[in-house]
Amino acid sequence: MRAAVADSSLAATLRVTHAPQPYIVQGGDTFMSIARKFGILPRMITAANPDVDAHALSVGQEITIPSPTR
Length: 70
Known about the structure:
Elements: H1 2-14, E1 21-24, H2 31-38, H3 42-48, E2 62-65
Helix pairs in contact: 2-3
């Protein structure tokens, strides 16, 4: 039963809305790897950055990381 309480607390924490945030692309980053870092889906990054070509990211490029609840 204790695990269920921990799981529900985690779920409540993940539902907290966070504002979109900037992220500076690092060497080797892909939308997939960035999405994993932030616990979101790559398509969420794509939607938040419609003018960014996911296949042509540049080191130092700033992209927007959307809220995990979007």
